[in-house]
Amino acid sequence: MKHMPSPRKPDIPHETIDLQIADVLAAVIYPANKDTIVDAARDAGASNDVLTMLDGLPEQDYADIDAVTH
């Protein structure tokens, strides 16, 4: 059986802020609230800048990525 390389996992702590946010939001299962999004970022090792930005989101449920970025 041929070994296939596993898909590239994001190296979130070493990415730019924009890529960190995009990778975190793509990994979240929606609908999600702000706390779920912030927890996902923290678990992924996102930078303090990203955690601060996401923590500034309004307390609400987000249907999808577009709802968060809006």
What can you see in these coordinates?
With 70 residues, the chain is mostly helical. 50% of the residues lie in helices and 6% in strands. It has helices at residues 17-27, 34-44, 48-55, 65-69, and strands at residues 32-33, 61-62. The chain has a two-stranded antiparallel sheet. α2 runs antiparallel to α3 (48-55). The chain is globular and about 30 Å long. The chain starts with 16 loop residues before the first helix and ends with a helix. The model is unreliable at 1-7 (pLDDT under 50).
The low-confidence runs, each spanning 5 or more residues with pLDDT under 50, are 1-7
Gap from first CA to last CA: 46 Å
Give the biggest beta sheet: 2 strands, antiparallel
Strand content bin = 5-15%
Order of neighbouring strands in the sheet with most strands: 1-2
From N to C, what is the helix and strand string? Answer: HEHHEH
pLDDT average, as an integer? 88
**Count of helical regions:** 4
